[in-house]
Amino acid sequence: RIVYVNEDYLPEEEARVSVFDRGFVMADGVYEVVSVLDGKLIDFDGHQARLKRSLEALQIRNPLSDEDYLAAMRKLVEDNDITDGTIYLQVTRGNPGDRDFAFPPEDTQPTVVMFTQSKPGMADSPAAKTGWKIITTEDQRWARRDIKTVQLLFPSLAKMEAKAKGADDAWLVEDGKVTEGTSNNAYIVKNGTIITRELSSDILHGITRAAVLRFAREAQMKVEERSFTVAEAQDADEAFVTSASAFVMPIVAIDGAQIGDGKVGSVARRLREIYLDESRKAAI
Ligand code: PLP
């Protein structure tokens, strides 16, 4: 696999980042995951806009232009022969040459890394037909979840807790209300209304969330942006999650309680179809 590191395209074995890199020693960096379908990038503009917001929030200089990122992503897709898959992009505060809590000087070059992950047929994943089973667990992340930082240890622990319990993923819960999934936004459907937590620093502002809510409203579906409890979710007609890599993924059980009839719901199925159709059309 050819990967990108600081303007170089290298075989993955040859790519190097310093041991002092702030991303490595302090999780001082941000990332994006962009899906590729039919060799084209999905929601590129949305991911670029959020990358810039994350960098600004952490006062990390953005070393590249939108055009540079686009050109690099397209080159990686081509060099690695990616039809369907994802592109991972990470920008860290760079290498100060030593370890120090204070930020390095302004002119320190941020580190940019990009790599592809090939996932042939990812839009037809069998899981989308049977749905995921999830557990819930207390949300113990920091309070700025609107910044897409590389500090993913808590979501990783929650994912392992889900796996240990035979589930596919975990929803995180704070003050009795669901915030989001480990790496996705969370939704329920009750009497035809789609309910998902409102935007704030409590959750990541999902690019897929924004697109799916827009398509839902355009299709005259009712949308309510508000938080909900685990009990309300277990009593809902449907549940699902959204993310750049899972698209719209139905949820069929929460903490062992079946949702609706335990099968993939019609709203989730329809939103997945609309999202995939529309984003393929708009892909660049
Ligand atoms: N919430 C969290 C915590 C995430 O990590 C992600 C994606 O990685 C999402 C939501 C979904 O965001 P997007 O739709 O932009 O992929």
UniProtKB/TrEMBL annotation:
Its cofactor is pyridoxal 5'-phosphate. Pathway: Amino-acid biosynthesis; L-leucine biosynthesis; L-leucine from 3-methyl-2-oxobutanoate: step 4/4; Amino-acid biosynthesis; L-valine biosynthesis; L-valine from pyruvate: step 4/4; Amino-acid biosynthesis; L-isoleucine biosynthesis; L-isoleucine from 2-oxobutanoate: step 4/4. Pfam families: Aminotran_4. The keyword Hydrolase does not apply. It comes from the Bacteria. InterPro entries: Aminotrans_IV (IPR001544), Aminotrans_IV_CS (IPR018300), Aminotransferase-like (IPR036038), BCAT-like_C (IPR043132), BCAT-like_N (IPR043131), Class-IV_PLP-Dep_Aminotrnsfr (IPR050571). The keyword Transferase applies. One of its GO terms (molecular function) is L-isoleucine-2-oxoglutarate transaminase activity. Gene3D superfamilies: 3.30.470.10, D-amino Acid Aminotransferase, subunit A, domain 2 (3.20.10.10). Its EC number is 2.6.1.42. It catalyses: L-leucine + 2-oxoglutarate = 4-methyl-2-oxopentanoate + L-glutamate; L-valine + 2-oxoglutarate = 3-methyl-2-oxobutanoate + L-glutamate; L-isoleucine + 2-oxoglutarate = (S)-3-methyl-2-oxopentanoate + L-glutamate. It is an enzyme of class 2 (transferase). GO terms for cellular component: cytosol. Signal peptide: none annotated. One of its GO terms (biological process) is amino acid biosynthetic process. Keywords: Amino-acid biosynthesis, Aminotransferase, Branched-chain amino acid biosynthesis, Pyridoxal phosphate, Transferase. PROSITE patterns: AA_TRANSFER_CLASS_4 (PS00770). Belongs to the class-IV pyridoxal-phosphate-dependent aminotransferase family. Acts on leucine, isoleucine and valine. This is Probable branched-chain-amino-acid aminotransferase. It comes from Paracoccus tegillarcae. The lineage of its organism: Bacteria, Pseudomonadati, Pseudomonadota, Alphaproteobacteria, Rhodobacterales.
